[in-house]
Amino acid sequence: MKYHNFDNFTALTEALSQQWLDVIQTTPDGSSFALAGGSTPAPVYQRLDQLLSNIDAHNPIKLVATDERWVPDQDTQSNEGLFRRCLSGSAAGKRWQLVSLKNASSTPEVATEAISVRLNEQLPQAFSAVLLGMGADGHIASLFPGAPTQHDDLACLAAVHPQTRQSRMSLSLPRLLNTKRIWLVITGAEKRQVLEQAIENNLPVASLLREAGCTIDVFWCP
Ligand code: 6PG
């Protein structure tokens, strides 16, 4: 784990989006990214959108959510909807393609196998990077405390938010770990302490810390 500390989120956003753009520009054959939802990363997505809209290169980019709420894209709770709103400029420029974690099934439980097939077909290689957030309970993606981190050998699994009971689809831990880079974006002293005590408290993020095959770059600001 390597910390990158910033005075504020604007500085963090600039550093991470530039690093992200660099990965895109140095992978002409195509890059793929798994992206967190929630309230933290939106400014990073908006800044990357600006940067992407200002470059000529059309290196293929595939995006997938690390997890999605089982709601329509129009719903403000939708992570895929968040990506479409934040990355609208580059979407218009057809700079990226989204691989959805959703389908028309009534529940994520029903959809899991079909989505896993889709993920394996459309995203067979290691991600170029996974951008994760973390909850105050130490969850990453929708891998919540005390809940499974994978279902059989599928690339995704259904989950339920422990407080809101909201249905979710999450990439499995093994699929999240099949990546060349991990960017963990957290803010505030509380989350930093949760991360630093994650292994002794056996929180979901601890699995990432224990099993990651690459450095975990932690982007942090107060
Ligand atoms: C989601 C995320 C989730 C998020 C954490 C942190 O869909 O909610 O993917 O894992 O990263 O819950 O959320 P905040 O950034 O809102 O604190």
Structure description:
- With 222 residues, the protein is an alpha/beta fold.
- The chain has one domain (2-221): 3-Layer(aba) Sandwich (Rossmann fold).
- Helices cover 35% and strands 20% of the residues.
- The chain has helices at 9-25, 42-53, 79-86, 88-92, 108-122, 173-177, 189-196, 204-211, and strands spanning 2-5, 31-35, 61-65, 67-69, 97-98, 129-132, 156-160, 167-171, 182-187, 216-221.
- The strands form two sheets. A seven-stranded parallel sheet has the order 1-10-9-6-2-3-5, sandwiched between helices.
- Helix 1 (9-25) crosses helix 2.
- The longest helix is centred in the first third of the chain and has 17 residues, at 9-25.
- The two termini are 18 Å apart.
- The model has no long low-confidence stretch (mean pLDDT 95).
- Residues 36-40, 66-67, 79, 133-135, 139-141 line the site of 6-phosphogluconic acid.
- 6-phosphogluconic acid is lined by residues 36-40, 66-67, 79, 133-135, 139-141.
